[in-house]
């Protein structure tokens, strides 16, 4: 592809991006008004920080549950070995 076509394709892509952003910006008040009249509130997307925090909390809960299960299993193993003939 010649340099001229490459440049034209690049600038056409930028024009599409800017046009899309402009249309979204111009239509946002209209969409907001329509949501207000319909009684629909737009949920904000969770930020990256909030989603990472939620993932960490979930991972912590799973780790705690796994630790509880391992401790219970170990307790059963210890109780079983004590009852086999050792007088403790």
Structural class: mainly alpha
| Overall helicity | over 70%
Q: How much is the radius of gyration in Å?
A: 30 Å
In total, the number of domains comes to: 2
What is the global morphology?
elongated
Describe the largest sheet: none
* Unreliable residue runs: none
**Number of E-type strands:** 0
What is the helix tally? Answer: 2
Mean pLDDT: 87
Strand content: under 5%
What is the terminal separation in angstroms?
A: 86 Å
Q: Order of SSEs, N→C? A: HH
Word description of this protein:
- 81% of the residues lie in helices and 0% in strands.
- It is mainly α.
- The protein has 2 domains: 1-43; 44-88.
- The protein is elongated.
- Residues 45-68, 76-88 have a biased composition (Basic and acidic residues).
What are the salient characteristics of this protein?
88 residues, mainly alpha, elongated
How is this fold's topology laid out?
Blueprint: H1 3-38, H2 48-82
Short description:
Residues 35-88 are annotated as: Disordered. Residues 45-68, 76-88 have a biased composition (Basic and acidic residues). The protein folds into 2 domains: 1-43; 44-88.
């Amino acid at each position: 592809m010649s340099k001229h076509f490459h440049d034209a394709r690049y600038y056409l892509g930028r024009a599409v991006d800017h046009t899309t952003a402009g249309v979204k910006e111009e239509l946002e008040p209209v969409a907001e008004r329509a949501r207000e009249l319909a009684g629909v509130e737009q949920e904000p997307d969770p930020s990256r920080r909030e989603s990472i925090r939620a993932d960490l909390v979930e991972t912590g809960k799973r780790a705690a549950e796994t630790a509880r299960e391992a401790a219970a299993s170990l307790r059963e193993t210890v109780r079983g070995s004590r009852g086999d003939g050792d007088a403790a």
